Each structure stands twice: as C-alpha cells, then as structure tokens.
Amino acid sequence: MKFGYIAITLLFGFHTLQCHGDRGFDGILFSKEEIGFLQSNGAGLNIMDDDDFSTFSTLDELVGDNEIFFTGEYHATHKSHLVCLKFIKYFHQRKGIRHYLAEMGYGSAYMVNQFLDTGHEQYLNEIMTALKGTAAYTAQYATFIRNVREFNASLPIESKIVFVGIDIEHQIDIAFRALTLLLPPSSIGEPSYLKEIRSWAQIFINNQFNRASYPKNWYADCGSLAAALDTDMKNNPDQYVSLLEKNHFDFKFIVNNCVAALRYYQIRDYNLREEAVYSNFLNIYDKLDNGTPKKFYGQWGSAHIVQVSHIPNYIVAEPLAARMDNDSDSPVQGRVVSILPVYSNSEDLIHRNGVQVVEEIQDITQGVLSGLKPDESEIILFTLLGPNSPFERTCNSFFCKEDAPEVTTDFVQFILLIENSNAAMPWKD
Q1: Mind listing the pLDDT tens digit for each residue in 274-311?
Q2: Cβ partners under 8 Å of residue 277, min gap 6
Q3: Half-sphere exposure of 74 toward its Cβ, with a 13 Å CA cutoff?
Q4: Residues 6+ apart with CB under 8 A from 14
Q5: What are the CA-CA distances from residue 141 to residues 123, 168, 309 (Å)?
Q6: Burial class, 393, CB count within 10 angstroms (exposed 0-12 / middle 13-18 / buried 19+)
Q7: Residues 321, 304: contact at Cβ < 8 Å?
Q8: E-assigned strands of 124-168?
Q9: How many CA atoms lie within 13 A of 68 on its CB side?
Q10: Three state DSSP letters for 212-226
Q11: How far is the C-alpha of 319 from the C-alpha of 340, rounded, in Å?
C-alpha cells in the first residue's frame, strides 16, 4: 500500500538539508475544502505513559501493511522527544517493530545499544559529550535514551528496542570508540592501522571526549587513518574476516561510514549525504533478523522524510524517504508512511555563533490547525487520507507547482500538530 510522505526542509529540521531563503518563508495555505476535511479528521493523542494507545486508532486503521514509518521533528524541542518515545512504544505494540531507524551514524548507534544493554553511564556520557555543538546535545535527548532503556527492561530479549544508525558518522571520535569495542581484546599480531585506532580511542577517552583537549589536527588525522584502513580492508579481506570474525560486518560498516562522513564534510553536498544514508539502509536491510516483512520506525529531521524531492524553492537534495519509496532498488518501495510535525507556540534550541539559544518556531499554518482542534489536547494527529479527501485529488500549493502531476498525499499522509513545546535544554551546561 502506497501512501504519500512528508517533511519540509530546514524549517522543520535544521541540521538536515539546506533550503533556499531563511526561516521566514511563507507557510501552508489551505483551501476551504481542505480546512473542512481537516476539521473532521483530527484526533488528540495521549503521549503519556498511562495511555493504552486508544487515541491512536486513526493510525491503526490507516497505516496498513507498510514497512517504514517516520515521524519528522524540529530538532531540540522538548515535546519532540516525548512524541518519539510514544511512537516507539506504539509501533512496538501494534506492529511488532523493535528496530529504531536512528538519525545517527552506525558507530554512534552501536554505542547507544551498549548503553541500552549494560546501563553503563560512561557510554551515555561519552555519547552526549561528543554531541556538543549539535542539536542533539540536550538533556531531553539523554533522558529519551534512558527512557528507551527503561522500556526495554520490561521486554524480553528478543523484543527489546535496538537503535539502527544509517546516517554518516558525524561523530568520528565516538565511531572510533565503537571500533575498539569490536576489536579482539589482544592487539598482538594485528595490522598497524588497528593499533592506531586503539591509540586514538584512548586519547578520546582520556580527554573525556572533550574536543577542545584533542590534538590540533585530530579530525584530519583520524580521517586519513579511516581512509587507509578502509583501503587495507578491501585489499586484504580474508585477514580482517579472520581477525574480527562475527564483528567483521559492524567494524567494516563503521570504517566505511567514517569515510562517507569525510567526503560529505569536505564539500557539504547534501545529495552526497542522502546517497550515503540510503546506501547504508540498503546494506543493513538484509543483515537484520527483523521478521518478514522487515519493519522500522524512526524520527528524523523532517527534511529527510519527504517522499517527493521537488517542493518548489526549498528541497535541494533528493531526501532519504523519496529514495526509499520510489527507487527501483528499494526493498520497501511504495511501503513508506510519514507524519509531518507542525509546531505552534513552541520553541527550539539552536546554535548561533557557537552558542545555544532559544528561538520561537514559526507556525507555518499561522494558527489554522490550532483552530481546527477536536479537543484540548496539545498533540493532534490530522490525517490527509480518505475517500473524500481533497488532499488525494489535488496538490496543496506549498508542495507543488501548478502543473505538477502529484497530489498532496504523494508528499504526506498525516500532519502532527505539536503545541506549547518548550525548547530542549543543553546537556550539562
């Protein structure tokens, strides 16, 4: 079953894809017919832990047999993390989904899973410290990870949530830390490149992942090491398979993903990043024992979850979701569902001149959705699907040019209104 897909650009997920203009561009304008449909097709969601998911009945009816489920987010907003945790639990209960498709590198996800498995605070502290300077460096994000671990404690081993990182390795120091955990305990007889990996990881640990204390050219040196190791693994595959055994796939994946990150940061080509992320997904898909069909849920900056890549004037790269849902080599072609967040009376935490500051999020519907609320809930799910939906017959001008062949539901199936969200707060600052 094919639904549309949604996400917008930097407006909904800064730190994702680039857009033209600034944060003040015009928002969504709804027709009278569209407003009437939305008014009759909204439902308040209870995102607290005492809910039995009865308020999610709209999703029960409409998500069908799809395999990829995304919610978008504006990074560093408090309620985004609450929404994500609730959807993790919802899709786990209703769809049996245990693999969380995370907007992080494979190595970073490996470290998160180490924390989920062991509860060692050192792992979480290392992860969070390495995120300084990013939108994920918040107390709420650390709490979110802890809450996933708490949820896992209630589940049998075979049902626990596992983070699957398909983004490039934005935090190469954490990636190197993960590599050392995948190496054999003894370094005797191993290639010199692996000894260097161990050495760099120890430097990071000794400096408590505080990059201000790292050697001056650490990133360039680590990048060169990753590239050299990647080449050596390709030239001597049997040696590394024998040495790493069951950890070979994970180790090789992280090394290759470090190289992908270096390529991206050299030229900041957003298509290069999306290509790498999609390629990672394809490489991971067949490796996971994830049931048949395989199913995933993830929450990403909304620019990544657009199903069609040509929203006028805004999208400048083909997003992950468009590749997943449309590309001929995609194992989930036509089976992707996405939920777009719209924020009202809310704030986020952004970086400006190296400092985290709180900023109001623009309501791109200019309060229209808040006026269509069916109840007093602050989280409202609006569906755009249905036999009488104007969104399935025409394309809202925000998404399409006048002569475009798509309809709105080629871009999105649901809109999630999030009201009155404070900005997330910095972690340990």
Answers
A1: 999 999 999 999 888 766 678 999 999 988 988 887 66
A2: 166, 167, 168, 304, 320
A3: 32
A4: 74, 75, 135, 301, 348, 350
A5: 14, 19, 29
A6: exposed
A7: yes
A8: 162-167
A9: 32
A10: HHCCCCHHHHHHHHH
A11: 14
| Residue 152 pLDDT > 70 | yes
- The token pair at 13 is 């997920």
pLDDT at position 418, please? 96
Classify 408 in phi/psi space as left (phi over 0), alpha (psi -120 to 50) or beta. alpha
What separation, in Å, do the N-terminal and C-terminal C-alpha atoms of the chain show?
Answer: 46
Which tokens hold the place of 244?
């790493």
Residues 6+ apart with CB under 8 A from 264: 168, 272, 273, 276
State how far the Cα of 324 lies from the Cα of 332, in Å rounded to an integer. 6
Cα–Cα–Cα angle for 265, 15, 147, rounded to 5 degrees? 115
Torsion of CA 298, 303, 307, 313, to 10 degrees: 180
Assess contact for 106 and 279: CB atoms under 8 A: no
| Res 23: pLDDT | 32
Distances (CA, A) of 426 to 21, 133, 135, 234: 28, 10, 9, 41
The 10s digit of each residue's pLDDT in 90-115 is 999 999 999 999 999 999 999 999 99
Token couple for 132:
């300084």
DSSP-derived pairing of the beta strands 414-419 and 379-383? antiparallel
CA pair distance 352, 332, nearest whole angstrom: 38
- Tokens encoding 294: 């395989």
CB atoms within 10 A of CB 388: 11
Would you say 19 and 270 are in contact if contact means Cβ atoms under 8 Å apart?
Answer: no
Measured on CA atoms in the order 39, 40, 43, 44, is the torsion positive or negative?
Answer: positive
